[in-house]
Amino acid sequence: MVLRDKFIKKDSSEEESVLICSSTHHMLQADRLLRQHNFKVELVPTPRGIGSACTTAIRFAKNLKEEIKDVIMATDIDWKGIYDIEKKNRLEDWKDIWNLEINSKFSRVLKKIAKDEVLNISEIKTLLKANRESELEALFLAANRIREEAVKDTVDVRAAIEFSNYCHKNCNYCGLRRENKNLTRYRMTEDEIIKVTKEIYELGIETVILQSGEDPWYTTDKIVKIIRRIKEEFGMKITLSLGERTKKEYKVFKEAGADNYLLKIEAANKDLFNQIHPDDNYEVRSKHTKWLKELGYITGSGGMIGLPSQSIEDLAKDILFQKKYGIHMIGVGPFLPANNTPYAEYKSGDLITTLKVVAVMRLVCQNVFIPATTAIASLDSEGQEKALESGANVIMLIMTPPQLRENYEIYSNKNMVDLDWAVESIMAANRKIPEYLNLDKLNRIDRSEVDARYTTG
């Protein structure tokens, strides 16, 4: 085939299609091949109605469909099909929303969402500026309905092991920063990590999150040994959250069995990013995010709401960053100050703004995982319930050993979310408890209270 430039300018109204492959390996092969042929393609979470939010599709302009099909068919790439992205029209179904007392500008933006039209930054800001009770009701109703369409009613429950609080970085907001001399440091051994993973496995949870500060003491070989033991002994999905590593390390971790990688941008405004990360680089962080996508990880990112000097436009840019990079798991939560940091005296982010960001993130990104974060639960005892009602669909338990938890102080006064807390939040939000949970492990809740609500997703 003669290579020619297909990097055409694409506007927001252009019809699109996606290529779905049989495995991550074949998807990455197809992505490389199409880029070599100069097709403009993007790796994105698989659109709703076509596949799961935890898989990746290759998106391109619909008018390139036949050419791309010819290229793929000339190879041994195993692909399932090419699907047009169908736009829905929910105007009639959302009549109750239009009957609420909302202004015409706000209504116009929500109607674009109802018709699956792409929002620009100005329109995203319009939604984030909602402050009247009726506008907030409309926003959260719309987000919850898109959530129901995209990821259904079951709340995914995962669990984190914060296995080291050593960090060689010096982020201004984080209590793990290297200059915090008042923090008791710890590192868990491989066997200690495996022991806690077994406890998580016995809860029925299918995904373990291995989280730490940026601690080079845990070499590539040490992390690989932990990944392989978890896979061999429990067969669980593994999310790594280790900060920035080399591309070679990311590749080795993936080959060893890591499924997901969480690397938050925290702030998509370059100046704000540099302000809160004095020894990090925005371009480097963005490049690492691309690497993770290219290596086939289910990628996680996210940001904080209420950072010093953060504006509504900054929050809109955060949402567009997640959309642009095709992030699968988007964790957003309020900024909470940590003791012994330069930001210790700043006020926390507020709950309503955080919930608005969760809702607009769902409306813009749609078929993705959005946690009701631990930070939200730490800010407000009903925060996770409210986040679930605003478009979130994941809760993460803290399974770090009790004697170590207080020292993993990214922020102070953290709510140590456990299985009972998660189940209570899910029930309060009138959402479904996942079938895989072992509810015999509940401590504070009477099992009989939840049996009637226990259902599959």
Question: What does it look like?
Answer:
The chain is globular, with a radius of gyration of 22 Å. It starts with 15 loop residues before the first strand and ends in a 6-residue tail after the last helix. The protein has 18 helices and eleven strands. α12 links the parallel β9 and β10. It has a seven-stranded parallel beta sheet. The protein has a four-stranded antiparallel beta sheet with strand order 2-3-1-4. Helix content is 40%, strand content 14%. It has 457 residues and is an alpha/beta fold. The longest helix is centred in the first third of the chain and has 19 residues. It folds into three domains: 69 residues, Alpha-Beta Plaits; 46 residues, no CATH class; 301 residues, Alpha-Beta Barrel (TIM Barrel), CATH 3.20.20. Its cofactor is [2Fe-2S] cluster; [4Fe-4S] cluster. This is Iron-only hydrogenase maturation protein HydE. Pfam families: Radical_SAM, Se_S_carrier. Keywords: 4Fe-4S, Iron, Iron-sulfur, Metal-binding, S-adenosyl-L-methionine. One of its GO terms (molecular function) is 4 iron, 4 sulfur cluster binding.
Topology:
Blueprint: E1 16-21, H1 24-36, E2 42-45, E3 56-61, H2 65-73, E4 79-84, H3 95-98, H4 104-114, H5 121-128, H6 133-151, E5 156-164, H7 190-202, E6 207-212, H8 220-234, E7 237-241, H9 247-256, E8 260-262, H10 270-276, H11 282-294, E9 298-305, H12 312-324, E10 329-334, H13 351-365, H14 374-379, H15 383-388, E11 394-398, H16 402-405, H17 419-428, H18 447-451
Parallel strand pairs: 5-6, 5-11, 6-7, 7-8, 8-9, 9-10
Antiparallel strand pairs: 1-3, 1-4, 2-3
Helix pairs in contact: 4-5, 5-12, 6-13, 7-8, 8-9, 12-13
